Automatic annotation (TrEMBL):
Protein name from the UniProt record: YdhG-like domain-containing protein
InterPro entries: YdeI_bac (IPR016786), YdhG-like (IPR014922)
Span of domain YdhG-like: 18-113
Length: 199
């Protein structure tokens, strides 16, 4: 499906917040942002840069701001929905269409657009180069040089994901099981969570 057809399919899907999401869309589309489709949801860009996105969940819906932490939160409405995991993302969260205030939403959208035009963005923290590897993984490297080579070819973020995934198991047999399941992915150059990141 092309982007336009994916976008239309998203907005035609029946769910409890369908009308509310369409209301948000109509307001966002009054701005200079361009509507695209990424990560299975509508994303709004300016000069190819992600500025905002719409999201619907089981109990709420809302508007994401990719550099929302830089927005002056005049109405004190922005949420960090992934506390501790993101420095930049913020969300306007609603549970009913009646909560949507057009002037309020336009304020946040225009703030985000203004920041984007100024080139303001939150820089991602560089991952630490020192990743603590679990014993099971280092032992596997000593037995399989191809595995070690493939692991070192991964990005630091992916290396950390595997190391923490294996090390976080309390029992040795679980750590070994996780290592065995991770090995083909590592050899394939894939991250632990790549299948969830596909657009």
């Amino acid at each position: 499906m092309s982007n336009p057809s994916k976008i239309e399919a998203y907005f035609k899907t029946e769910h409890p917040f369908k009308d509310a999401i369409l209301t948000l869309r109509s307001i966002v589309n009054r701005t200079a942002l361009e509507e695209t489709f990424k990560w299975s949801a509508p994303v709004y860009t300016l000069d190819g840069k992600n500025v905002a996105g719409l999201g619907r969940f089981k109990h709420h819906f809302g508007v994401w701001f990719f550099n929302g932490s830089l927005i002056n939160d005049k109405y004190e409405r922005l949420h960090n929905a992934q506390e501790g995991k993101t420095k930049a993302l913020r969300q306007l969260r609603y549970t009913d269409v009646s909560e949507i205030k057009e002037d309020e939403l336009l304020y946040y959208l225009n703030e985000a657009i203004s920041n984007q035009k100024k080139g303001l963005e939150v820089k991602a923290a560089k991952p630490s180069k020192n990743i603590a590897l679990p014993v099971e993984l280092t032992q596997a490297f000593s037995e399989d040089q191809n595995l070690e080579k493939a692991f070192k070819a991964l990005t630091p973020g992916r290396q950390k994901e595997y190391a923490e995934h294996i090390a976080s198991a309390k029992q040795e047999k679980t750590r070994i099981s996780r290592l065995e399941k991770s090995t083909p992915l590592i050899l394939d150059g894939k991250g632990l969570h790549d299948k969830y990141k596909n657009c």
